[in-house]
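Memo to structure team: turn this sequence into structure tokens by end of day. - J.P.
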Amino acid sequence: MNPYLHDYDNIDDITRVFEPDKGHWKYSLLNLFLRVFVKWRLGREVNAQFVRDLIGKQEHQAPKQLPGIDRINVDEDGVSGEWVVPDDYHQNRVVLFLHGGAFIATSPNVYATMLAPWCQALGARAFMVDYRLAPEHPFPAASNDCFAAYHWLLKQGFHPKDIVIAGDSAGGNLVLSTLLRLKAEQTPLPGCAVLLSPFLDFTLSSRSGLTNARKDPFFTLAFAIGVRKHYAPGELHSDPRVSPLLGNFEGLPPMLFQVGSTEMLLDDSVRAAQKAKEAGVPVKLEIWEKLPHVFQSMDGLPQTKAAADRTCQFITQYTDWN
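Reply from structure team:
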């Protein structure tokens, strides 16, 4: 029996399933578009430039200027990134955001658009880390950059409890691996964490990797295999620094997971939420019916706003940001 496979049927007390009650045609068309124009093009060999070009198309369609938001580039003390700053904010509140993109691409316009409503609702700034990308900079480059960015915020005077760490997909992996590293090095932990469709298990041992393989409108097993090859060698795939799902969750801050019901990565969130619960960590798991990978970044879906509202409610619950 695979030691990483478990039965998680009894987690109803931490799980909420969101069924779309409006915009059915929008997410249906989106899923069809992803399946027809994206999924089939993700072959066995993941070409970094192809992924960057694919994500770049979405990036060019996202606005650079956002109403009520300033964007400020940062490159100092070995930390590179960008502030997303609403017109009205509290100096002490910050969301440290670690972007997705399969560890090999980035799309700051897309993420600034996603984070702007969070910042405005919470009265907080967000700092988007521009970590080094694979395959040119494989593990531990991205991990080191995210770890350094957290320490940089502490040096700027932010109190740990007023830092929220968040990320999507590959960035969700970096969120959890950063938390585990901070805990191991006895650095004060952030107030809470938000993980959107995180890719947490490089051993690819989750059941949903098989059961949702045909349902997922975006991800493929071949793509996951290609991504992990670019980021870390095979001998590290079961290392918690690369597969943080396999780490020790005791003492971690409250965590929110949001994931689509048809994602191949569904069980990465399910299993992580269960481990958090068993470790005594406050945790919420939200499974959004039939919505694709990181739908929260796809402007125009009614569920995108609803998920943002839920995220802000969670952050407010576990910080003093009232």
